[in-house]
Design brief:
312 residues, alpha/beta, pyruvate-formate lyase- activating enzyme, nine-stranded mixed β-sheet, three-stranded antiparallel β-sheet, 33% helix, 28% strand, iron-sulfur, S-adenosyl-L-methionine, oxidoreductase
Length: 312
């Protein structure tokens, strides 16, 4: 019998205030207010349908991504995580990460998220340059980004992450390094430092901006990596840097081919059986009412495939 890998849970919140021109994730601009209670109940109904696949195993990590999860109210987050705990065997030391947009951050709401069980927040800063943020279609400015990081740092969370991008339209080496310096000065235990890529089916894909050339991108990466290393960060996967002991356990589980349940709009999962078979689940929309109109109905088709693998 195969030794089962760790099990995680991914929860998708599909809405944003507005869609960024580079984003190809399953996210949709709001058309009204988020129906917090209804969406949380649909998430928990979705989990009810998947609970059997957990096979009583312990959940090591939860990641609440989007979209913009920080649009949810504190009460909605409490109901959601209480519902998860009632249905799954959650490890006492489980890492529970939630993504947040600096433009939707409120101090009281951060406290409510922490009370609900969130112990790690990932803040989508992307840049500290006002012109670059506007070019990326972000709803926040540099001051809001710094405020969000300072709030997260003051909560006493297990960890917090800053998402930062480089290789931005018309970005110079010094501009990219200045973004990194400002991020490092905020002392996050974890930094995700992504190179902007142009994806199809995005606004940037249809109207590509001018990006730094390959030589400039290499200089940015090389000197940026040196800055991060000198500040005590260790690179442990393609775009992730962490202080010792602060690696994101949820993302490491993906990299190590671990198992995960996925609930919410467009989520998918992978679960290993004791005999070595692997179940993959994909939830497909059966009609167009799912995310775009702010009301998410549990009208999804669960597509399952089982791979007859004898070992991982």
């Amino acid at each position: 019998m195969a030794k089962l890998p760790p099990l995680s849970l991914y929860i998708h919140i599909p809405w944003c205030v507005q869609k960024c021109p580079y984003c190809d994730f399953n996210s949709h601009a709001l058309k009204g207010e988020v129906s917090h209670d209804d969406y949380v109940q649909h998430l928990l109904s979705d989990l009810d349908a998947d609970v059997a696949w957990a096979q009583g195993r312990e959940i090591k990590t939860i990641f609440i991504g989007g979209g913009t999860p920080s649009l949810l109210s504190g009460q909605a987050m409490q109901t959601l995580l209480d519902g998860v705990r009632a249905r799954l065997n959650l490890a006492a030391d489980a890492e529970i990460t939630m993504e947040a947009n600096p433009g939707t951050v409120e101090a009281d709401r951060f406290v409510d998220y922490q009370r609900a069980g969130v112990n790690r927040i990932s803040i989508g800063v992307q840049s500290f340059s006002e012109p670059k943020l506007k070019r990326l279609g972000r709803i926040h400015g540099p001051q809001e980004a710094m405020r969000a990081a300072i709030l997260a740092n003051g909560l006493g969370l297990r960890s917090f992450n800053l998402d930062l991008m480089h290789g931005l339209p018309d970005q110079t080496l010094e501009e990219a390094l200045n973004d990194l310096r400002q991020a490092i000065a905020l002392n996050p235990p974890h930094l995700s430092w992504y190179q902007l890529t142009i994806e199809p089916n995005t606004l940037f894909g249809s109207r590509p901006p001018v990006l730094p050339d390959d030589d400039a991108l290499w200089d940015i990466f090389d000197q940026g990596h040196q800055l991060l290393t000198a500040a005590g960060y260790q690179q442990y996967e393609t775009s992730a840097y962490a202080k010792p002991g602060y690696q994101c356990q949820h993302n490491l589980n993906y990299w190590r081919f671990g198992d995960y349940l996925g609930i919410g709009c467009g989520a998918h999962g992978k679960v290993t059986f004791p005999d070595g078979r692997i179940l993959r689940t994909t939830k497909l929309v059966t009609h167009a009412v799912i995310c775009r109109d702010v009301t998410w109905k549990a009208s999804v088709t669960l597509v399952m495939t089982i791979n007859p693998l004898s070992s991982l």
